[in-house]
Write a structure and sequence with these properties.
By secondary structure, the chain is an alpha+beta fold. The chain contains 25 helices and 13 strands. The strands form 4 sheets. The protein has a 7-stranded mixed beta sheet. A two-stranded antiparallel ribbon has the order 6-7. It has a two-stranded parallel sheet with strand order 10-11. Strand 6 and strand 7 form a beta hairpin.
Length: 447
Amino acid sequence: MGNSSNASAGLAARIHRALRDAGFAAYLVGGCVRDRLLGLEPKDFDVATSATPDEVARLFPGSHLVGAHFGVVMVRDGDAEVEVATFRSDCAYRDGRRPERVEFENDPRQDVLRRDFTVNALMLDPSSGEVLDFVGGRADLAAGLIRAVGVAELRFEEDHLRMLRGVRLAASLGFSVEARTLEAMRRKSGSVSLVAAERVRDELTRILTEGGARRGFELLDETELLNAVLPEVAALKGVAQPAEFHPEGDVWTHTLLMLEALKTPSVELAWGVLLHDVGKPPTFRVAERIRFDGHVEVGVEIAGRILHRLRFPNAVREQVLALVANHLRFKDVPHMKQSTLLRFLRTDRFAEHLELHRLDCLSSNRRLGGYENLKRMFDELPREILKPPRLLNGDDLIRAGYAPGKRFSAILEVVEDAQLERRVETKEDALGLVCALFGAPDAHTGL
Ligand code: ATP
Ligand code: MG
């Protein structure tokens, strides 16, 4: 990222100069200005200009019009790319997503008024360092405030996604949401369900993975956006747990603690953490103590529905569900047979399962001894013990006189178990075991 971001910064500066030399107004705008002023590295660069899309395209051969009618041109040079957008104002939002019509403007002020938050509405002249601030963005940057440009409620009615963008920005920057903006989010929270599932998914994933996940989910809760996008997660609130295992409190508190401990998680780990206990609310019951019998199976089902609804690709979905499905198995590790334990350690992407378990312990009883032992074992275990070369295969069984059949896979699994437990070490041992457990070959072939 670093390199292509540097390259994009260079390209943005060249574009700026070329536009100015051609007599147009041009500024860096949006997230890249915000991040620069905060001393962060921008993710991408946007240039706003008085030049029309055609004029931009003429100045930069090799660029292409992405949304000519929204006035956006993508300029590329090698790895670097910069979005160059004509100053514009947006008119007549009808569908809560995009303007019906845009009008090109010569005045940068008009362009700023259509932007979502004041901290995203600053313009910077990269050659002079001059900042254009029409909406008080610098003061909000200094105060750590996310504030809608204009009347928050109207801005969220125009484009419902802005509410999630605001939460994400506040979370990742460690900012607060200004009171009226927060109140507008609360009032408009229901309409976020009209946003395309993929866009909700991407914002939620960014809230989970780009820093401040706990803060992000607290804000989603406070604004009631959580009820609208993830009611199953909102249901974690107030679900009590046995104090003996969970001195920290209810399921929501526990989940927030885990989110807080996430550093730079994969998408799958982050969602796995968020959803690992999602089966607890519907399985809660009070017996001799609070119990959640079957919460893992129920959780896998609920998580599956959520990930499907949010249109996650299958590969992501499968790993998240595997994380949910396995999270309780760790408590059985001390009682596992060696073969069961080794098979568990062979789970695809086991390191991620282990990390979820670490966060789970850290955010409850804080006893990490079991985790540390297992981690050491996983790191140090030689491959030939974890996955020793097979002693027998189906052909060996046929050659030994066993009739091929469905039983073969069960027989071979028993052999592998014995091998993992070091009860057999050679092919002869293995055949001896098969004979002892499943009978001599003639019993099967009927010879
Ligand atoms: P980052 O790139 O770090 O995710 P960003 O603020 O740069 O954050 P982009 O999606 O790159 O976000 O958008 C660039 C700029 O375009 C924003 O800073 C904002 O000014 C404007 N913008 C983006 N999305 C919207 C929106 N939905 N409504 C209004 N303005 C928007
Ligand atoms: Mg950006």
